[in-house]
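The protein record filed here:
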Amino acid sequence: MAKPTPIELEVIRTTSLTEHMLRVTFGGDALASFPEDQESAYIKLIFPQGEGKRPILRTYTIRHQRPTEIDVDFAIHDAKGPALTWAVNAQPGDRILVGGPGPKKLIQHQADWFLLAGDMSALPAISVNLSKLPADAVGYAVIEVPSESDIQSLDHPEKMELRWEINPHPDPNGEFLPSKVEALPWLEGTPAVWAACEFNSMRNLRRLLKQRADLPNSHLYLSSYWKIGQTEDEHKVAKRNDSEQDAAAVS
């Protein structure tokens, strides 16, 4: 299937959600061609680099979608790449090329209970997942944030327990988030698991989940959204190599 042609969107407004989360609201006439119901799908922000050079692409999640607007949330951190630098300086009327949307990655809804886990990079997708779970859903959402001021009010089923875990400094060994998941009381039955976070945290979570439960692929989504000390392009290479190694270990 051919990729959608990039469209040019306009910044409508920016909103500071928490200390480390900035929302940019996009609109413009081109949104008329954008498909409906794309919350949690990803888009590519496109930054041209001049004639003869490949543009820089950065991946972000659609947090909200309305008929004439979409919201994209940016986690604010010290290492400001091209997308975050652009976002923190964005003003109403600024324009940017956007590719996508890519496929949505939602947690499997046919399960005995649910486990969502991730850091700030995954908070927009976790938020959408929580809002779309069945009203009687039971389970946990474990969310790593850098400060108490980054805790948000999220729409979620009453019996889904939100556990906000404060970690001011990303752990290069990727042990913080998995340790919080490991400490959870494991509920009865087969869970559906959705987790996205830093690369090393993802690998540790994968190891933990393999020990805890033999889940079918339909009930497990596990991804890394970034890697400490690497650009998105470098992270993509690390992800591909890790996926090949993991597949080889299973076969």
Summary: Residues 41 and 103 are 5 Å apart (CA to CA).
